[in-house]
Amino acid sequence: MLSSPKRPLLLPVSALAFLAIVSRHSSAADQPQWGEHYSRNMVSTEIGLPDSCDPGTGANVKWTVPLGAQTYSTPIVAGGKVLIGTNNEPPRDARRKGDRTVLLCLNEADGSSCWQLVALKRGGDPYLDWPNVGICSPPTVDGDRVYVVSTRGEVLCLDLNGQANGNQGFQDERHFLVPPDSEPLDVSATDADVLWVFDMVKEVGVYTHDSAHTSILIDGQCLYANTGNGVDNTHRAIRAPEAPSLIVLDKGTGRLVARDGEGIGPRTFHCTWSSPALAEVAGHRAVFYGGADGVCYAFDAWQSAATDTVGKLTRLWRFDCDPTAPKEHIHQYVGNRREGPSTINSMPVYHDGRLYVAAGGDVWWGKTHATLKCLDVASAVGDAGPKELWSYALDERTCSTPAVYNGLVFLADCGGRVHCLDADTGQPCWVHEAGAEIWGSTLVADGKVYVGTHGGELCTLAASKEKKVLATVKLDSTIHGTPTAANGVLYVATMKQLYALAVTR
After folding, report:
1. What is the pLDDT of residue 356?
2. Pairing verdict, β 100-107 and 81-87
Protein backbone atom coordinates (compact mmCIF):
# COMPACT_ATOMS: atom_id res chain seq x y z
CA MET A 1 0.00 0.00 0.00
CA LEU A 2 1.00 3.63 0.07
CA SER A 3 4.27 3.78 1.89
CA SER A 4 4.57 7.40 2.95
CA PRO A 5 1.97 9.45 4.83
CA LYS A 6 3.70 12.68 3.84
CA ARG A 7 4.27 12.39 0.11
CA PRO A 8 2.39 10.81 -2.84
CA LEU A 9 3.90 7.95 -4.77
CA LEU A 10 5.92 9.67 -7.50
CA LEU A 11 6.59 8.76 -11.09
CA PRO A 12 10.29 9.09 -11.98
CA VAL A 13 9.87 10.99 -15.25
CA SER A 14 12.81 12.37 -17.18
CA ALA A 15 12.72 16.00 -18.21
CA LEU A 16 12.34 15.04 -21.87
CA ALA A 17 9.45 12.67 -21.23
CA PHE A 18 7.84 15.19 -18.91
CA LEU A 19 7.83 17.85 -21.63
CA ALA A 20 6.34 15.37 -24.05
CA ILE A 21 3.47 14.66 -21.66
CA VAL A 22 2.74 18.37 -21.30
CA SER A 23 2.67 18.98 -25.05
CA ARG A 24 0.23 16.24 -26.05
CA HIS A 25 -3.46 17.03 -26.52
CA SER A 26 -6.54 14.99 -27.37
CA SER A 27 -8.10 15.47 -30.79
CA ALA A 28 -11.03 17.85 -31.10
CA ALA A 29 -13.53 15.07 -31.86
CA ASP A 30 -12.67 13.19 -28.67
CA GLN A 31 -14.43 13.82 -25.36
CA PRO A 32 -11.50 13.62 -22.91
CA GLN A 33 -13.36 14.97 -19.88
CA TRP A 34 -16.89 15.38 -18.59
CA GLY A 35 -18.39 18.50 -20.15
CA GLU A 36 -17.06 20.95 -22.69
CA HIS A 37 -13.37 21.75 -22.21
CA TYR A 38 -12.81 24.01 -19.14
CA SER A 39 -16.28 25.62 -19.21
CA ARG A 40 -18.05 22.35 -18.30
CA ASN A 41 -20.94 23.18 -20.63
CA MET A 42 -22.87 19.99 -21.47
CA VAL A 43 -22.74 20.68 -25.22
CA SER A 44 -20.98 18.73 -27.97
CA THR A 45 -20.19 19.80 -31.53
CA GLU A 46 -20.78 16.26 -32.85
CA ILE A 47 -23.24 15.86 -35.73
CA GLY A 48 -24.92 12.95 -37.47
CA LEU A 49 -25.98 11.27 -34.22
CA PRO A 50 -29.04 9.00 -34.06
CA ASP A 51 -32.36 10.15 -32.63
CA SER A 52 -33.09 6.66 -31.33
CA CYS A 53 -31.98 3.04 -31.39
CA ASP A 54 -33.41 -0.45 -31.09
CA PRO A 55 -31.24 -2.81 -29.02
CA GLY A 56 -33.52 -5.69 -30.01
CA THR A 57 -32.88 -5.41 -33.74
CA GLY A 58 -29.50 -3.70 -33.48
CA ALA A 59 -30.71 -0.61 -35.36
CA ASN A 60 -28.30 2.29 -34.71
CA VAL A 61 -26.34 0.14 -32.25
CA LYS A 62 -22.64 0.04 -33.15
CA TRP A 63 -21.72 -2.20 -30.21
CA THR A 64 -22.61 -2.97 -26.62
CA VAL A 65 -20.41 -4.13 -23.75
CA PRO A 66 -21.51 -5.63 -20.42
CA LEU A 67 -20.48 -3.56 -17.41
CA GLY A 68 -20.71 -4.51 -13.75
CA ALA A 69 -23.90 -4.68 -11.73
CA GLN A 70 -23.71 -1.03 -10.56
CA THR A 71 -22.50 1.75 -12.85
CA TYR A 72 -22.79 5.43 -11.89
CA SER A 73 -20.06 6.93 -14.05
CA THR A 74 -20.12 8.77 -17.39
CA PRO A 75 -18.09 7.39 -20.33
CA ILE A 76 -15.05 9.34 -21.55
CA VAL A 77 -13.57 8.94 -25.06
CA ALA A 78 -9.99 9.82 -26.05
CA GLY A 79 -7.05 8.41 -27.98
CA GLY A 80 -9.05 5.57 -29.51
CA LYS A 81 -10.19 4.40 -26.05
CA VAL A 82 -13.44 4.50 -24.08
CA LEU A 83 -13.15 4.67 -20.29
CA ILE A 84 -15.99 3.95 -17.87
CA GLY A 85 -16.16 3.28 -14.13
CA THR A 86 -18.18 0.33 -12.81
CA ASN A 87 -17.98 -2.41 -10.16
CA ASN A 88 -16.56 -5.93 -10.10
CA GLU A 89 -19.75 -7.98 -10.53
CA PRO A 90 -18.94 -10.34 -12.11
CA PRO A 91 -15.11 -10.28 -11.93
CA ARG A 92 -13.35 -10.06 -15.30
CA ASP A 93 -10.12 -11.29 -13.71
CA ALA A 94 -10.48 -14.48 -11.68
CA ARG A 95 -7.53 -13.39 -9.53
CA ARG A 96 -9.30 -10.22 -8.39
CA LYS A 97 -12.58 -11.28 -6.82
CA GLY A 98 -14.94 -9.66 -4.36
CA ASP A 99 -16.13 -6.11 -3.86
CA ARG A 100 -13.78 -3.94 -5.94
CA THR A 101 -14.06 -0.79 -8.00
CA VAL A 102 -13.24 -0.96 -11.70
CA LEU A 103 -12.17 1.45 -14.43
CA LEU A 104 -12.61 -0.25 -17.80
CA CYS A 105 -10.58 0.80 -20.84
CA LEU A 106 -12.14 -0.36 -24.12
CA ASN A 107 -11.27 -0.03 -27.77
CA GLU A 108 -13.33 2.76 -29.30
CA ALA A 109 -13.77 0.85 -32.57
CA ASP A 110 -15.48 -2.28 -31.26
CA GLY A 111 -15.69 -2.15 -27.45
CA SER A 112 -13.12 -4.90 -26.97
CA SER A 113 -11.18 -4.81 -23.71
CA CYS A 114 -7.78 -3.12 -23.47
CA TRP A 115 -7.15 -3.12 -19.71
CA GLN A 116 -8.84 -2.54 -16.40
CA LEU A 117 -8.02 -0.99 -13.06
CA VAL A 118 -9.41 -3.19 -10.27
CA ALA A 119 -9.02 -1.07 -7.14
CA LEU A 120 -9.72 -1.82 -3.50
CA LYS A 121 -12.63 -0.58 -1.42
CA ARG A 122 -11.93 0.98 1.97
CA GLY A 123 -13.85 -1.61 3.96
CA GLY A 124 -15.05 -1.18 7.53
CA ASP A 125 -17.69 1.52 7.93
CA PRO A 126 -19.84 1.27 4.78
CA TYR A 127 -20.48 5.03 4.79
CA LEU A 128 -16.81 5.65 4.04
CA ASP A 129 -17.04 3.74 0.75
CA TRP A 130 -20.48 2.32 0.01
CA PRO A 131 -20.41 -1.45 -0.70
CA ASN A 132 -20.64 -2.71 -4.28
CA VAL A 133 -20.48 0.79 -5.78
CA GLY A 134 -17.87 1.05 -8.51
CA ILE A 135 -15.81 4.07 -9.53
CA CYS A 136 -18.31 6.91 -9.93
CA SER A 137 -15.88 9.62 -11.02
CA PRO A 138 -15.61 10.24 -14.77
CA PRO A 139 -11.91 10.10 -15.70
CA THR A 140 -10.06 12.94 -17.42
CA VAL A 141 -7.61 12.13 -20.23
CA ASP A 142 -4.66 14.38 -21.04
CA GLY A 143 -2.49 12.99 -23.84
CA ASP A 144 -1.59 9.45 -22.78
CA ARG A 145 -2.38 10.04 -19.11
CA VAL A 146 -5.67 9.15 -17.39
CA TYR A 147 -6.60 10.92 -14.15
CA VAL A 148 -9.39 9.50 -12.01
CA VAL A 149 -10.49 9.52 -8.37
CA SER A 150 -11.18 6.19 -6.66
CA THR A 151 -13.99 5.59 -4.18
CA ARG A 152 -11.28 5.51 -1.49
CA GLY A 153 -10.46 9.17 -2.07
CA GLU A 154 -7.28 8.59 -4.11
CA VAL A 155 -6.31 10.64 -7.14
CA LEU A 156 -4.79 8.16 -9.59
CA CYS A 157 -2.65 8.82 -12.66
CA LEU A 158 -2.72 5.94 -15.14
CA ASP A 159 -1.13 5.22 -18.50
CA LEU A 160 -3.78 5.29 -21.25
CA ASN A 161 -1.85 2.47 -22.95
CA GLY A 162 -2.01 0.23 -19.90
CA GLN A 163 0.78 -2.35 -19.74
CA ALA A 164 1.18 -2.41 -23.55
CA ASN A 165 4.26 -0.18 -23.34
CA GLY A 166 5.66 -1.76 -20.17
CA ASN A 167 5.12 -1.17 -16.49
CA GLN A 168 6.03 2.41 -15.64
CA GLY A 169 5.38 4.57 -12.60
CA PHE A 170 5.93 3.39 -9.07
CA GLN A 171 6.19 -0.31 -10.02
CA ASP A 172 4.07 -1.45 -7.09
CA GLU A 173 0.72 -2.48 -8.55
CA ARG A 174 1.23 -6.04 -7.30
CA HIS A 175 0.93 -4.77 -3.71
CA PHE A 176 -1.22 -1.68 -4.26
CA LEU A 177 -4.12 -3.52 -5.89
CA VAL A 178 -4.52 -6.29 -3.29
CA PRO A 179 -5.61 -6.16 0.38
CA PRO A 180 -2.79 -5.63 2.91
CA ASP A 181 -3.05 -9.17 4.27
CA SER A 182 -3.06 -10.85 0.84
CA GLU A 183 -0.29 -12.24 -1.30
CA PRO A 184 0.81 -9.76 -3.99
CA LEU A 185 -0.31 -10.46 -7.55
CA ASP A 186 1.98 -10.12 -10.53
CA VAL A 187 0.91 -7.51 -13.05
CA SER A 188 -0.72 -8.94 -16.17
CA ALA A 189 -1.14 -7.50 -19.66
CA THR A 190 -4.76 -6.61 -18.86
CA ASP A 191 -3.98 -4.62 -15.70
CA ALA A 192 -3.81 -0.84 -15.48
CA ASP A 193 -0.42 0.84 -15.29
CA VAL A 194 -0.52 3.13 -12.24
CA LEU A 195 1.94 6.01 -12.52
CA TRP A 196 1.30 7.85 -9.26
CA VAL A 197 -1.21 8.00 -6.42
CA PHE A 198 -2.22 10.89 -4.18
CA ASP A 199 -4.24 9.69 -1.18
CA MET A 200 -6.47 12.60 -0.11
CA VAL A 201 -7.38 10.83 3.14
CA LYS A 202 -3.76 10.52 4.25
CA GLU A 203 -2.32 13.64 2.67
CA VAL A 204 -4.94 16.31 3.43
CA GLY A 205 -7.12 14.63 6.07
CA VAL A 206 -10.28 14.13 4.02
CA TYR A 207 -13.11 12.10 5.57
CA THR A 208 -14.84 10.35 2.67
CA HIS A 209 -18.55 9.65 2.56
CA ASP A 210 -20.54 7.17 0.42
CA SER A 211 -18.39 7.51 -2.72
CA ALA A 212 -16.24 10.14 -4.35
CA HIS A 213 -17.67 11.83 -7.44
CA THR A 214 -14.97 14.00 -8.95
CA SER A 215 -14.32 15.12 -12.50
CA ILE A 216 -10.75 16.37 -12.56
CA LEU A 217 -10.04 19.70 -14.26
CA ILE A 218 -6.62 20.22 -15.87
CA ASP A 219 -5.18 23.66 -16.58
CA GLY A 220 -1.61 23.56 -17.86
CA GLN A 221 0.47 21.70 -15.30
CA CYS A 222 -2.21 22.02 -12.59
CA LEU A 223 -4.80 19.41 -11.76
CA TYR A 224 -7.89 20.50 -9.77
CA ALA A 225 -9.98 18.00 -7.79
CA ASN A 226 -12.81 18.29 -5.30
CA THR A 227 -12.00 16.14 -2.30
CA GLY A 228 -15.20 14.32 -1.36
CA ASN A 229 -15.06 15.49 2.25
CA GLY A 230 -18.34 14.73 4.02
CA VAL A 231 -20.31 13.69 7.08
CA ASP A 232 -19.81 10.53 9.12
CA ASN A 233 -22.23 7.62 9.43
CA THR A 234 -24.54 9.58 11.74
CA HIS A 235 -25.06 12.21 9.01
CA ARG A 236 -24.86 14.80 11.75
CA ALA A 237 -21.16 15.43 12.16
CA ILE A 238 -18.20 16.50 10.02
CA ARG A 239 -15.21 14.47 11.21
CA ALA A 240 -12.67 16.50 9.20
CA PRO A 241 -13.83 20.14 9.43
CA GLU A 242 -10.37 21.48 8.54
CA ALA A 243 -9.95 19.36 5.40
CA PRO A 244 -10.02 21.25 2.09
CA SER A 245 -12.83 20.95 -0.42
CA LEU A 246 -10.70 21.78 -3.46
CA ILE A 247 -7.05 20.92 -4.06
CA VAL A 248 -4.46 21.51 -6.79
CA LEU A 249 -1.86 18.88 -7.74
CA ASP A 250 1.07 18.85 -10.12
CA LYS A 251 -0.27 16.60 -12.88
CA GLY A 252 3.17 15.17 -13.66
CA THR A 253 4.09 14.02 -10.16
CA GLY A 254 0.95 14.12 -8.02
CA ARG A 255 2.53 16.56 -5.57
CA LEU A 256 0.16 18.81 -3.62
CA VAL A 257 0.52 22.39 -4.85
CA ALA A 258 -2.37 24.32 -3.29
CA ARG A 259 -5.67 24.00 -1.44
CA ASP A 260 -8.64 26.19 -0.68
CA GLY A 261 -8.84 27.95 2.67
CA GLU A 262 -12.57 28.67 2.76
CA GLY A 263 -13.43 26.43 5.72
CA ILE A 264 -16.33 24.81 3.87
CA GLY A 265 -16.16 21.63 5.98
CA PRO A 266 -18.37 22.70 8.93
CA ARG A 267 -21.00 24.01 6.49
CA THR A 268 -21.13 20.76 4.49
CA PHE A 269 -24.57 19.23 4.89
CA HIS A 270 -23.76 15.89 3.26
CA CYS A 271 -20.68 15.65 1.02
CA THR A 272 -18.47 17.49 -1.47
CA TRP A 273 -19.50 16.37 -4.97
CA SER A 274 -19.29 19.39 -7.29
CA SER A 275 -16.30 19.64 -9.65
CA PRO A 276 -14.65 22.89 -10.80
CA ALA A 277 -14.85 24.84 -14.07
CA LEU A 278 -12.48 27.43 -15.50
CA ALA A 279 -12.71 30.44 -17.80
CA GLU A 280 -10.84 33.55 -18.77
CA VAL A 281 -12.87 36.62 -17.82
CA ALA A 282 -11.62 40.07 -18.78
CA GLY A 283 -8.13 38.67 -19.29
CA HIS A 284 -8.11 36.90 -15.92
CA ARG A 285 -8.21 33.11 -15.47
CA ALA A 286 -10.67 32.06 -12.80
CA VAL A 287 -11.62 28.68 -11.35
CA PHE A 288 -15.31 28.37 -10.42
CA TYR A 289 -16.26 25.93 -7.71
CA GLY A 290 -19.68 24.92 -6.37
CA GLY A 291 -19.30 24.49 -2.63
CA ALA A 292 -21.12 21.90 -0.55
CA ASP A 293 -22.36 24.89 1.49
CA GLY A 294 -24.46 26.21 -1.41
CA VAL A 295 -21.94 28.96 -2.19
CA CYS A 296 -20.27 29.35 -5.59
CA TYR A 297 -16.62 30.40 -5.28
CA ALA A 298 -14.26 31.93 -7.81
CA PHE A 299 -10.53 31.44 -7.27
CA ASP A 300 -7.52 32.90 -9.03
CA ALA A 301 -6.20 30.09 -11.25
CA TRP A 302 -2.96 28.71 -9.85
CA GLN A 303 -0.06 30.01 -11.92
CA SER A 304 2.64 27.37 -11.49
CA ALA A 305 3.20 23.90 -10.09
CA ALA A 306 6.96 24.51 -9.83
CA THR A 307 7.20 25.00 -6.08
CA ASP A 308 7.87 22.77 -3.08
CA THR A 309 5.54 24.72 -0.77
CA VAL A 310 1.78 24.23 -0.54
CA GLY A 311 -0.10 27.44 -1.25
CA LYS A 312 -3.63 28.63 -0.61
CA LEU A 313 -6.00 29.43 -3.45
CA THR A 314 -6.83 33.13 -3.62
CA ARG A 315 -10.55 33.78 -3.59
CA LEU A 316 -11.76 36.31 -6.14
CA TRP A 317 -15.38 36.34 -5.00
CA ARG A 318 -18.17 34.23 -3.51
CA PHE A 319 -21.88 34.06 -4.33
CA ASP A 320 -24.36 32.55 -1.88
CA CYS A 321 -27.00 30.78 -3.96
CA ASP A 322 -29.36 30.53 -0.96
CA PRO A 323 -28.62 33.44 1.42
CA THR A 324 -31.69 32.89 3.61
CA ALA A 325 -30.84 29.24 4.32
CA PRO A 326 -29.43 28.28 7.74
CA LYS A 327 -25.64 28.54 8.05
CA GLU A 328 -25.09 27.17 11.57
CA HIS A 329 -26.12 23.93 13.29
CA ILE A 330 -27.13 22.76 9.85
CA HIS A 331 -27.31 19.05 10.64
CA GLN A 332 -30.38 19.53 12.79
CA TYR A 333 -32.20 19.77 9.44
CA VAL A 334 -31.31 16.23 8.36
CA GLY A 335 -34.48 14.66 6.98
CA ASN A 336 -36.33 17.99 6.84
CA ARG A 337 -37.93 18.18 3.38
CA ARG A 338 -39.29 21.71 3.84
CA GLU A 339 -36.34 23.80 4.99
CA GLY A 340 -32.61 23.55 5.54
CA PRO A 341 -29.26 24.41 3.95
CA SER A 342 -28.50 24.25 0.24
CA THR A 343 -25.69 22.44 -1.49
CA ILE A 344 -24.24 22.35 -5.02
CA ASN A 345 -23.86 18.88 -6.53
CA SER A 346 -23.50 19.73 -10.21
CA MET A 347 -20.76 21.75 -11.91
CA PRO A 348 -20.91 25.48 -12.61
CA VAL A 349 -21.05 26.23 -16.35
CA TYR A 350 -19.40 29.27 -17.95
CA HIS A 351 -20.78 30.58 -21.25
CA ASP A 352 -20.42 34.01 -22.89
CA GLY A 353 -19.55 35.92 -19.73
CA ARG A 354 -22.20 34.24 -17.62
CA LEU A 355 -22.04 31.50 -15.00
CA TYR A 356 -24.93 29.07 -14.55
CA VAL A 357 -25.14 27.38 -11.15
CA ALA A 358 -27.77 24.97 -9.81
CA ALA A 359 -28.14 24.77 -6.02
CA GLY A 360 -30.68 23.35 -3.61
CA GLY A 361 -31.54 20.68 -1.11
CA ASP A 362 -29.52 17.50 -0.73
CA VAL A 363 -30.93 14.57 -2.71
CA TRP A 364 -31.08 12.12 0.21
CA TRP A 365 -31.46 14.23 3.34
CA GLY A 366 -32.48 17.76 2.44
CA LYS A 367 -35.32 20.01 1.36
CA THR A 368 -36.96 19.27 -1.95
CA HIS A 369 -36.58 22.53 -3.87
CA ALA A 370 -33.67 24.07 -5.78
CA THR A 371 -32.84 27.00 -8.06
CA LEU A 372 -30.82 27.65 -11.19
CA LYS A 373 -28.90 30.94 -11.02
CA CYS A 374 -27.49 32.96 -13.90
CA LEU A 375 -24.62 35.24 -12.85
CA ASP A 376 -22.85 38.05 -14.69
CA VAL A 377 -19.29 37.14 -13.75
CA ALA A 378 -17.82 40.15 -15.57
CA SER A 379 -19.55 42.34 -12.98
CA ALA A 380 -17.91 40.63 -10.01
CA VAL A 381 -15.84 42.99 -7.87
CA GLY A 382 -14.10 41.61 -4.79
CA ASP A 383 -16.25 39.86 -2.20
CA ALA A 384 -19.35 41.62 -3.49
CA GLY A 385 -19.52 38.84 -6.05
CA PRO A 386 -21.22 38.80 -9.43
CA LYS A 387 -24.60 40.30 -10.27
CA GLU A 388 -27.50 37.86 -10.39
CA LEU A 389 -29.23 38.19 -13.75
CA TRP A 390 -32.04 35.76 -13.09
CA SER A 391 -33.13 32.84 -10.93
CA TYR A 392 -35.34 29.91 -11.93
CA ALA A 393 -37.11 27.94 -9.21
CA LEU A 394 -37.21 24.14 -9.32
CA ASP A 395 -39.74 22.15 -7.32
CA GLU A 396 -37.28 19.28 -7.07
CA ARG A 397 -33.60 18.98 -6.22
CA THR A 398 -31.07 18.62 -9.00
CA CYS A 399 -27.73 16.92 -9.64
CA SER A 400 -27.71 18.07 -13.26
CA THR A 401 -25.10 20.33 -14.85
CA PRO A 402 -26.72 22.82 -17.27
CA ALA A 403 -26.32 22.75 -21.05
CA VAL A 404 -26.28 26.22 -22.62
CA TYR A 405 -26.94 26.18 -26.36
CA ASN A 406 -28.25 28.61 -28.98
CA GLY A 407 -29.80 31.04 -26.47
CA LEU A 408 -31.37 28.26 -24.40
CA VAL A 409 -30.52 26.49 -21.14
CA PHE A 410 -31.41 22.84 -20.59
CA LEU A 411 -31.47 21.31 -17.11
CA ALA A 412 -32.91 18.15 -15.59
CA ASP A 413 -34.14 17.71 -12.03
CA CYS A 414 -34.43 14.73 -9.73
CA GLY A 415 -38.21 14.72 -10.16
CA GLY A 416 -37.76 13.56 -13.74
CA ARG A 417 -38.35 16.86 -15.53
CA VAL A 418 -36.29 18.39 -18.32
CA HIS A 419 -36.47 22.19 -18.36
CA CYS A 420 -35.80 24.46 -21.35
CA LEU A 421 -35.23 28.11 -20.42
CA ASP A 422 -34.51 31.31 -22.26
CA ALA A 423 -30.84 32.01 -21.51
CA ASP A 424 -31.37 35.79 -21.43
CA THR A 425 -34.39 35.92 -19.15
CA GLY A 426 -34.58 32.56 -17.34
CA GLN A 427 -38.21 32.22 -18.43
CA PRO A 428 -39.31 28.65 -19.17
CA CYS A 429 -39.89 27.70 -22.79
CA TRP A 430 -41.10 24.20 -21.95
CA VAL A 431 -40.90 21.40 -19.39
CA HIS A 432 -40.83 17.72 -20.29
CA GLU A 433 -42.02 15.03 -17.86
CA ALA A 434 -39.66 12.09 -18.42
CA GLY A 435 -41.55 9.84 -16.01
CA ALA A 436 -38.66 8.79 -13.74
CA GLU A 437 -35.90 10.36 -11.64
CA ILE A 438 -32.97 11.96 -13.44
CA TRP A 439 -29.56 12.18 -11.72
CA GLY A 440 -27.39 12.73 -14.77
CA SER A 441 -27.12 15.81 -16.95
CA THR A 442 -28.63 16.70 -20.28
CA LEU A 443 -26.28 16.51 -23.26
CA VAL A 444 -26.92 18.76 -26.24
CA ALA A 445 -25.43 17.47 -29.50
CA ASP A 446 -26.45 17.56 -33.15
CA GLY A 447 -29.40 19.83 -32.34
CA LYS A 448 -30.78 17.28 -29.90
CA VAL A 449 -31.08 16.96 -26.11
CA TYR A 450 -30.17 13.53 -24.76
CA VAL A 451 -30.91 12.50 -21.17
CA GLY A 452 -31.22 9.18 -19.32
CA THR A 453 -33.63 8.30 -16.53
CA HIS A 454 -33.80 5.93 -13.58
CA GLY A 455 -36.49 4.11 -15.51
CA GLY A 456 -33.80 3.07 -17.98
CA GLU A 457 -35.11 5.27 -20.76
CA LEU A 458 -32.98 7.36 -23.12
CA CYS A 459 -35.02 10.45 -24.01
CA THR A 460 -34.20 12.51 -27.09
CA LEU A 461 -35.75 15.95 -27.56
CA ALA A 462 -35.17 18.74 -30.05
CA ALA A 463 -32.77 21.40 -28.73
CA SER A 464 -35.22 24.13 -29.69
CA LYS A 465 -37.51 26.71 -28.15
CA GLU A 466 -40.52 24.61 -29.11
CA LYS A 467 -40.89 21.29 -27.35
CA LYS A 468 -40.52 18.26 -29.58
CA VAL A 469 -39.96 14.72 -28.32
CA LEU A 470 -37.95 12.85 -30.95
CA ALA A 471 -37.73 9.45 -29.26
CA THR A 472 -37.92 7.58 -25.99
CA VAL A 473 -36.05 4.27 -25.95
CA LYS A 474 -36.21 1.71 -23.15
CA LEU A 475 -32.78 0.25 -22.36
CA ASP A 476 -31.92 -2.61 -20.03
CA SER A 477 -31.56 -0.81 -16.68
CA THR A 478 -31.25 2.48 -14.80
CA ILE A 479 -29.19 5.30 -16.31
CA HIS A 480 -27.28 7.34 -13.73
CA GLY A 481 -24.66 9.16 -15.80
CA THR A 482 -24.67 11.55 -18.74
CA PRO A 483 -24.55 10.49 -22.41
CA THR A 484 -21.28 11.26 -24.21
CA ALA A 485 -20.81 12.15 -27.88
CA ALA A 486 -17.48 11.63 -29.65
CA ASN A 487 -16.36 10.90 -33.22
CA GLY A 488 -19.89 10.47 -34.54
CA VAL A 489 -20.99 8.05 -31.80
CA LEU A 490 -23.29 8.51 -28.80
CA TYR A 491 -22.28 6.56 -25.67
CA VAL A 492 -24.87 5.72 -23.04
CA ALA A 493 -24.08 3.76 -19.87
CA THR A 494 -26.83 2.00 -17.96
CA MET A 495 -26.23 0.21 -14.69
CA LYS A 496 -25.21 -2.94 -16.60
CA GLN A 497 -24.37 -2.10 -20.22
CA LEU A 498 -22.45 0.43 -22.27
CA TYR A 499 -24.11 1.28 -25.58
CA ALA A 500 -22.24 2.82 -28.54
CA LEU A 501 -24.94 4.28 -30.80
CA ALA A 502 -24.38 5.44 -34.36
CA VAL A 503 -26.61 5.98 -37.39
CA THR A 504 -26.92 2.76 -39.38
CA ARG A 505 -25.74 3.28 -42.93
Report:
1. 98
2. antiparallel
